[in-house]
Design brief:
The complex is a heterodimer. Chain A is mainly α. Chain A contains 15 helices and 2 strands. By secondary structure, chain B is of the alpha/beta class. The longest helix of chain B has 16 residues.
């Protein structure tokens, strides 16, 4: 580890320790806002681990998230909750692996459409199974788990996602993905197995999304497919990650915090126009700040550095 | 003296729809040999390079690296077996630094270094091609010849058994051309096995041990540069009937 890395790790550890005290200071509305921010931080950061370097936009987050939530709903009365969390992660990872094997050869827009369709497909299957086999539309998730505990679980997941992200960036795998994102032909000609590298990262992001779904399930109390597999979730994750910037590990966080707060306000004031506003936000971000806020800041710093040198 | 064969192309064909781009082509490259692959535009030279490197799969025939068949393997396996290349249209990785571009060649393929070792090794390759001064430069600041040098350094970084240079000298001005010829010449003196597709005749004469001449996908001549460039068939292919 270099000196700079040691300092960064220490700062992250301190930040996490301070955040872990948050539930003792706030509750109610503010705590629920903090849960939202923590949730989107994990989802957007793990999404960016895959999509940042490869430029593959995945809209499958809701599929993995919903599966995770349903694993908990189905097993909460018979299996210990901690085991369910693990199972949900595995479910997300396995589905990501299957989807990845089938689709990572697709490029660009085909991949986007497929992942969007996937979330819808899983939702329809779950709905069908519920209607025909269990005879009910939704399921109850009744546990003793409090909002505080959910926040701590999400915080632990956030720590895990940053740790894994940091390890990946330093590894051959991370370097391989940067090359793949630049030029897949060159990647193949320097000996990189593109499909396997992309798949590995897609599975990591699917595992996290599945686990987050399981963590959030007790908060819903009542789960039905339209809530668990909401396509809005997938879009929000993409928007937040792009807003912050996907070229740095901490980039998505910069988008998550303002967007989650802003969204709370918007969803409160204009509850029926949220989807429309979400679409507008998407367009604005893609057109105006394609490299995210972090990308903007970095190029501004670079420009300033240059003008200092020349001036 | 029976020198061992480094690469053996046996009866290879490649068809694009109705166009037969490579037609039953056979040739062999010996260890430590520099082989020139020449011919008029559109004669299928780059397609041959793409078939060897695995970017394209042949419709017929086989290619062997040593005694290992590579023509049915994907590009990444062929790269790991020891084939490295440059591209006719330079392929630089734009968001990586110059040094990282070169490191890319030495991590996943024939050479598998990582950490401090790979940085030092890549640095040596950059110095080797005369780019030691631009290690941390962003790729956007590179001139055309410098891009070509970086790409060559990336190919060399895998310590390849066979190096494929696809018109590496094309588009250089006279001064740069001399630098480029000297550079390839120094690789030749190192004993590298090289196949080069080239249009620059001076380079072919001074660099190649042997030439394979292609026209319309087929081999029309093979031999030393002097022999092949004097061949009537070759002159006809390049210049038309009245010159032959």
């Amino acid at each position: 580890m270099t000196r700079r890395e040691t300092v960064s790790v220490a700062m992250v550890a301190v930040a996490l320790a301070i955040l872990a005290c948050l539930p003792f200071l706030v509750d109610g509305y503010l705590l629920s806002l903090a849960v939202g921010i923590a949730m989107y931080t994990v989802l957007a950061t793990s999404w960016a681990l895959f999509s940042g370097p490869t430029h593959y936009i995945s809209l499958a987050t809701a599929a993995f998230y919903g599966l995770g939530a349903y694993v908990v709903a189905a097993g909460v009365d018979v299996i210990p909750y901690a085991v369910l969390l693990g199972l949900a992660g595995i479910a997300g990872g396995v589905v990501a692996a299957l989807v990845g094997l089938a689709t990572l050869r697709l490029s660009g827009v085909y991949f986007v459409i497929f992942t969007l369709g996937l979330a819808e497909l899983v939702r329809q299957i779950v709905t069908w199974v519920q209607n025909n086999l269990t005879g009910s539309r939704g399921m109850y998730v009744l546990t003793e788990i409090t909002e505080r505990m959910i926040f701590w679980e999400l915080l632990a997941l956030a720590a895990a996602v940053y740790l894994i992200g940091w390890l990946v960036t330093r590894s051959r795998l991370g370097f391989a993905l940067r090359i793949i994102g630049n030029d897949e032909v060159v990647a193949a000609h320097v000996g990189i197995n593109s499909a396997a590298s992309k798949l590995a990262l897609f599975v990591i992001s699917g595992t996290f999304a599945g686990t987050v779904g399981a963590v959030m399930a007790p908060r819903f109390t009542y789960i039905e497919p339209s809530i668990a597999f909401s396509p809005e979730l997938s879009f929000q994750v993409v928007i937040m990650a792009l807003l912050g910037g996907v070229h740095r590990l901490w980039g998505p966080l910069v988008g998550v915090i303002p967007f989650t707060i802003l969204w709370e306000v918007i969803a409160g004031r204009f509850p029926t126009q949220t989807v429309l506003l979400l679409g507008i936000a998407f367009l604005l971000i893609v057109y105006l700040i394609p490299n995210g806020v972090v990308g903007r800041i970095e190029s501004a710093i670079k420009l300033a550095g240059r003008s200092v040198k020349h001036g | 003296m029976a020198e061992s064969t480094a690469l053996d192309v046996q009866g290879v064909s490649k068809r694009f729809g109705g166009l037969l781009a490579v037609d039953d082509l056979s040739f062999a490259v010996r260890e430590n040999e520099v082989l020139g692959l020449i011919g008029p535009n559109g004669s299928g030279k780059t397609t041959v390079m793409n078939l060897i490197s695995g970017l394209l799969k042949p419709n017929g025939g086989e290619i062997f690296l040593g005694d290992r068949k590579i023509s049915d393997r994907p590009a990444r396996i062929i790269a790991r077996a020891g084939v490295a290349r440059t591209f006719q249209l330079v392929r630089i990785l734009p968001s990586l630094t110059v040094l990282e571009n070169v490191i890319a060649g030495a991590v996943f393929g024939h050479k598998r270094l990582w950490g401090r070792a790979v940085r030092q090794f890549a640095l040596r390759q950059l110095e080797r091609v005369g780019m030691g001064h631009a290690v941390d430069a962003p790729t956007a600041s590179l001139t055309y010849i410098d891009e070509k040098r970086v790409e060559l350094a990336r190919a060399l970084a895998s310590d390849p058994r066979i190096l494929l240079l696809d018109e590496w000298l094309a588009g250089l001005n006279p001064t740069e051309l001399q630098i480029g010829i000297d550079l390839i010449s120094s690789l030749r003196e190192e004993g590298r096995t090289i196949i080069l597709v080239e249009h620059v005749m001076d380079a072919i004469r001074s660099l190649c041990d042997r030439c394979v001449v292609m026209n319309s996908g087929a081999k029309i001549a093979e031999g030393t540069p002097e022999q092949t460039l004097a061949d009537r068939e070759v002159i006809r292919a390049y210049l038309g009937d009245e010159h032959a």
